[in-house]
Every structure is written in structure tokens, then in C-alpha cells.
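Help! Submission page says 'invalid entity' but I think these are all valid:
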Amino acid sequence: MRAADAIVKALEMEGVEHIFGIPGGAILEVYDALYDSEIVHILTRHEQAAVHAADGYARATGKVGVAFATSGPGATNTVTGIATAYMDSSPLVVMTGQVPRAMIGNDAFQEADTTGITMPITKHNYLVTDERQLLRIIKEAFHIASTGRPGPVLIDLPRDVTMADIEFDYPDKVDLIGYKPKIKGHPKQIKKAVDMIMQSERPIILAGGGVRLSNAHEEVLKLAETIPAFVVTTLMGKGAIPETHPLCLGFIGMHGTKYGNYAVMEADLIIAIGCRFSDRTVGKFSEFAPEAKIIHIDIDPAEIGKNVRVDVPIVGDAKLILQEMIKMIKTKQRKEWFERVDKLKRKYPLKYNRDENVIKPQFVVEKIYELMPDAIVTTEVGQNQMWAAQYFKVKYPRQFITSGGLGTMGFGFPAAMGAQVAFPDKIVVDIAGDGSFLMNIQELATCVDYDIPVKVCVLNNAYLGMVRQWQQLFYKRRYSATRLRYPELSFEKIAKGFGAHGITVEKPSEVEDALKEAFDVDKPVVIDFHVEVEENVFPFVPPGRSLREVLDGE
Amino acid sequence: MKRCTIAVLVENKPGVLARVSSLFRRRGFNIESLAVGTTERPDISRMTIVVRGDDRTLEQVMKQLNKLIEVIKVSDLSENSVERELALIKVHAPPAKRSEIIEIANIFRARIVDVARDSFIIEITGDEEKVNAFVDLMRQFGIKEMARTGKISMARGSKTVG
């Protein structure tokens, strides 16, 4: 069998239904094989968007996302997408074309050292130098991408390898001597953690993206209700517990809820589940939760003790570990602590100054939530992302998709495409900024081409808003290179030019109708909300400060 | 700051050394020496890495190495192990100094492996301190060239890292 056909057949056997990508010379053979396949290929308009779309698809479904690109520039364009997936532990298999083996290293046309370039941003990568190893490599790639701490795996395919003749003998299991993720938590550690929880008077659960990756939502809720304990999340952990649940204190960190941050600082025990204590979540490492003991559950042993001191580490799969813990936990009411946190909640609610004349970006997000609480929401990066995180109350896991670790502007729109491809019957909304949206706006063409009815809500303030906010607060309003001067720019016209639907909204009173219109049309829609230009995101813990040092708007 | 000797068993595949060194560079770990060679099994290579850092850094080094798919086993050999290094030293050796150099080499059980009109190549093996001491003594004669292998290490007793 031609190796290219074997590749496509292997992908089918892995259950792949969608691939995002762009063809080119070095990967032509594989695209030829794809022509006869049931797998749906979505031709994006930039390889970066192909990888983000595959990433959005993976985050929305839990399946491995697959992206294709050709050699050289095709492959280098995937780099931002791969790095984004790597930082947020998203399972991807990226296949890139490569020049024929005999030409590798000779600076051939469209040659790049793809495996060299992507080495530090992939969980693992392969250059296939022997066609007889091809199927084993594909099997391993899917296994590595989706198990343990998930992540992107890249396979670089020299053109002559894809043309070779091989036997189709797809392995049914892998044999990797150096890769055996620890799944089951150590019983002794679990017992220790349970004892610590029982002794605690002020426990808090900190849920991260790992909860989603291990499908441990039910367990987190059960644990929270059994102890009972309040739950805060990281940005990536949004959706680990319904945010409308009385025990949920929202997300913490730089722009997290004030009551969530304060509660963490007053807690005597943090039960951290599948999170990596990033600087954006923790603030100043040495002053994080000063009164608390820390239990850290994570499948990646390297995360334990990397950023903060840990008292009880438990390495393994969160779902299984929590199931064990729940069996042993006995309910104990902690009246004083609950009263204290309720007081914090009442005293420091999320708020902004409402205005009847200007559209407040927070108001737009509130309206999206009000009208479409079940929508899948993706975000770009910056102020739009933080307002989305603050004002959209996530109800179910995998509902909120955002680039947390790498903070990639231009992620949200193609990620929304990927999520929409996976769930054609859902409303998928990209909450965007004008700066971010412009970074992958060409994907409107893809949305129109494939009838992917994503709704892009641009919170247009004609600034790189988050950077401007920092310049306002830390650089005396010296707005160096953050103003996006385009008075004539019309996202409505751009959308229409691509054949999508476009709406411009300038008054708060029009927000609701515009959203309803967008949700009603079965087309990709861009709504250009002209929002308050110098609105800031609060609360705000300045970088490197403790979570107690919260700036407010007033 | 501590010094730590780590033995890393890896799959003998192309690109593994690049993965390991790329990891050190990316995470800001400092390699003092690195030696790679084959083991009793042809499909497995052994790297001996000497790294300097505080306890937390060293813990991260070991954990991050373990995450590499092609890394099979990482062991800390800083305590209670046999350490050896080999050095080749080309030293300036005019006739008047030859006997003195030979005498010192004998004391260190070093071997003269090449003799030219006015230079020797001397081979010495031993732990790092011994090699350093010998190198220091050779300086007075004028070292023209030197190559050191970096340290390899093995735990004492019947325990193995594999």
C-alpha cells in the first residue's frame, strides 16, 4: 500500500473525523490519499489557524485534534499554534510535509528543520526516516498526545516516505519503555490528604485545566459538596464546577474575583487539582496562601513543587484520586469559615460602572451570557478574555475555551471554528478584541466556505487594550504603539465582503437586538461593538504582587 | 549551589542528545559536563551529566528529563559512586624537562602515549580531583592542548541504575 494511503487509513482507525490544514508540495501525496477518505478536511487560510482550529476542536471534544501543513513555511506557520497547545496541554497530532530524505540538510526549496524548531514546544516529535516505522510512529503519536499530561505531537513526513510502498499492519498497542504515566495515586498520600482535609477549618479547592483533561468534574463537585469546601479555579479551570453553584468563588489570579483571591489568602488548606500554579494565578509565589497547607494533585510530577511549596503531593489521574478521596471524606460543617467567605462575597462583588450612553464591554459579555448561557465561548487574549472570564458564568465542562498559558492573540476565532465543526448544532461565540481578531481575520473565508456559523463579538476599543491599560497604570498614560488608528475600518463591511453577516453596534440599547439577530442567522456573523475605549479590567493584581494587593477601579 | 552527577539512560536514537541539551538550555539549567556512550544493551545509551544548581533546580532537572519520551531512567549518582574521567594532555617537553615530567606522570599512574621531539601526549584517568591536580602540575611545563572526556559515574555495590 502507498504510505500516504496507509497514513489516512491509520487516521481513520484512530477515529479521526476532521482534519484542519493547508496542502503544499511536500504533503501532496497525503492529500491525494485524503481525496478518497470519509475524513472531512477543512481548508483554513493560514496554517496557524489550522492548528488553533484543531486545538479548539480538541478542547471542545476531548478528542485528539489533527492538523496538516506542508514543509518549510507551512510548518513554521504552525509554530504558534503548537506552542499554544503545548502550554495548555491540549492533545494534537500535527503532520507536516518534508522534503525528500535525500535532500534533507541541503537547504532544498521549502525545507525547514521542523523537528528541530518544534522540539521545545511539542510533547514529542518524529521525523520519519524509515517508512517501515511510519505506522508505529502514528500509533505512538496518538497515544502520547492523549495520555498522561496531554500535549501536541508532530510527525514530519519526507515526501518520498509518503510515496513508498509499505505493508499496512497497524499496531494495536504501543511499547514505549520511557513513557509510562503514573495514573493511580499513592494510597498513603491520599490518606494523608484526607486527614489533612478533616483537620482543616478553612479548606479551598483550587481546580485547574487538569480537571477537564481528566474528566473529573463530577468528582470535584462531589468532593466540594462532601467536605464541604469552596471552589476557586484557574483561568483554564473554568467549568470545573458550574460557576453558578453556591460553592464556586469564580477564578482567581491577576483579574480573578476579589473574594476568591481573598478567600485563598485566608484559607488554611488548598486542595489543588490539575493546576500548575502559574504566576498569573498565584501572584507572588512566596506570599501565596501564607496560612495554608497545600495538597497538590497532578499527573505531571514535574509540576509538583515547581512554583510553590507543596505539603502533600499526589501524582496520578485526578479523577481516580478524587474518587478514592471521596470514599474516605466525612462531612464537617465549618460555619465560621462559610460565614466569613459569604461576607467576602457580599462585600467584594464583581462590578463595573454602568453607562447608558456608551457600550461597556462587560455589558456586552453579560448580555451574551444572558441570551446564550449554553453557548460554547472562546476568547481572544487581553481585556476581551478577562471580561469574558469574569462575566460569562460557565455552566459545563469544555464550554469555555481560551489560550491561558501562551496567551495567543488570534487564537479565539479559529478555535471557535474548530469547536463549531465539532458541535454544528451549538452556538459558538468568539469574544474578541479588535486587535486579536485582526490576527486571524482571514478565517472568515473558511467559515463562509464550510458554513461554519461562528459568532464573533468584537469588543472594539481601537486599542491593544490590555497593553494600553498597563501603560495607563504603570507608564503614566504614555500609549506607545497601542492605538489602532483606523477610523474608516468597518468589521461589518469586511464580514460582508467575505460573504458573512456583519453588524455594527454603537449604542447600549442596540446590543441585545444585535446579539439576537446574530444568534438567529445561520451564517458566520461579526458584530462590531464600539465599546468604551479606555475601559479597564478590574480587579487587578499587579504582576509580581500578592493576591491581597488588589487594585480596584475607584 | 550544589553539584550533582546524573546518569540518564536513553533510547539509542538520533536526536536524543539534542532533546536533552535543548531541555537544559530552555529551562536555564547549566551543564558542567556531559558524556555519552553505549551500554551493555545496544539500543540504550547512557549519558552522565554534571549539573550545578540549588536543590529545587536539581529536582526539576531530574523531573524534566524524566518527561522526555526517549529517556528511560534518571538516577542521581552524586553520593557513593565511582567517578572517572579521562584526559589527553599535550605538554611541552624539551629534553631537559622530560625526566621530571615522566616522574610526575608515574606518581599519578598516567601514561605517556605519544612522544615527539619536544612534546608528550599524556593520558590520565581518575576522578576529577586527581585529573585537576595533574593538570595543575603540568601547567608549569606548558600545556599545548588538552581534551577531557567529562565524567562518567557508577554507583558502588551491586545496585544498578537500569
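Support: the input was valid. A stray whitespace character was the problem, and the output above is from the cleaned input. The domain at 82-152 of chain B is CATH 3.30.70.1150 (Alpha-Beta Plaits).
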